[in-house]
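## tool: complex_structure
## caller: assistant
## args:
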Amino acid sequence: MLAINDLSATVADKAILKGLSLHINAGEIHAIMGPNGAGKSTLGYTLGGRPGYEVTGGTVTFTPTSAQPEPVEGLGAVHGASTSSARADLGAVDLLALDPHLRAAAGLFLGFQYPVEIPGVSFLQFLRESLNSQRKVRGQTPLNGGEFLKLAREQAALLKMDMDMLKRPVNVGFSGGEKKRAEMVQMGILDPTLAVLDETDSGLDIDALRIVGEGINAIMRKPDKAVLLITHYQRLLDYVKPDFVHVLANGRIIKTGGPELAHQLETEGYEAVAA
Amino acid sequence: MSEAALLPTARDEEWRYADIPAVAALGLGALADWHEATLAPGEVRAKDLVLDDQFPGLHRVRLHVDAGARAELFAVIAASSYTRLEVEVTLGAGAHFEFGAVTIGGGDVVREAVTRVRHAEPGATSHQVVRSVHWGQATGNFLGRIEVARHAQQTDAAQDFKALILEKGATANARPELEIFADDVKCAHGAAIGQMDEAARFYMASRGIDPETARGLLVRAFVADAFAAKDDGEALLDAALTALAGAGL
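## result:
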């Protein structure tokens, strides 16, 4: 589903990613762990296309597996897009060639470590614009107000979030934990193919961690979806069991293993494992 | 005296950011054209103005708001040539003046709101919110003068200006001016000029919102403050956003 090959990126002319390669198949959950400054957040922002994160080498090929109807203009296909059915393979896209909003429409969701506050724009309005913008690019009809509210209600309930919270301006006045929970409500509504979640566990208390973990499983643990969890700690992985754990240090993946690698990191530390 | 001698110049404080050649072209007739209204004690009157290309140029309004009356004026200043809304208000005892205005637009055009609020008697209140959104070579101005007479105790006057500059080359000017002779008064004023929040724009893009829609949502949220005191500001918001839709940014 996602093939990152030899990716290099700079931020303010400083090299952060230095030849990172990572392959993720549909149905898999990958965790990336690593010390501060290793490039974890840069990887997320680079995949999302944040201005200021400049790709200096390598490729990222994204092959959304299903649930997306025929691709339309803006989503350039690398290998030629299938047109056989509404749930057909979208074909492989050169992710780095797409504008950020088209990456989202292609099926990528980026969970933010620090979700942004937007005064004056309600969550419901924000999410309906988001969903319908994506649907428009994909050639789907927009959801009307009633359809959208029903979907929002279901997804908010899944994350045990009060609907009244979604009537408030985006993330304004939300606690750290509420913001992360709201990120997962957004993910549920947007229903991506691939989620890259940057420290979604930070700022969560024990109960919220469990709810968010269960939310990730409910929304994303499916044969045609995949997740890349970026995290510092093992604890989220108790709820969202990864198939692969990677250690990111100095801009590259230096070690890959199964869930046991996360436990080893927790007990021995990055330096010992990376050595 | 020649007509030129009677026209304002950039040396006049209230005209310092105006497009003086445009004012001269409008002529003395436009300058003399004051719309006057007096609100009776206790009266409530509200007016919305959309100064688009149907109503460019000078708009001078003089209001006398008698004791306990309430005047509300909301305006969108969005024409594609020089446009100035000038409001002179005299408040009686316990009267209130509510003002919300948006200057919005591009081109090499000056759009401005100018207010003079005289708290002539005790206990009057005034509340002004102005938002400017500009691109191209455009200029948006707010010149707000508050005068509090010596015996106008318990005056409560507030003035808030914010500008959003969407492109390098656009300008905003804020000129608050307070002249206070009473001692028991509250006068608050604030001014800020900034650019679009890039973090918010990327956050929206990451959710699939295209750049133009994102900008529209952010600008709408920004200018909405100017009409927050109004029960239904949607029509004015739509009028303000019309200018942005045609911007081709």
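## assistant note: Chain A has ten helices and twelve strands. The longest helix of chain A spans residues 123-137. Handing back to user.
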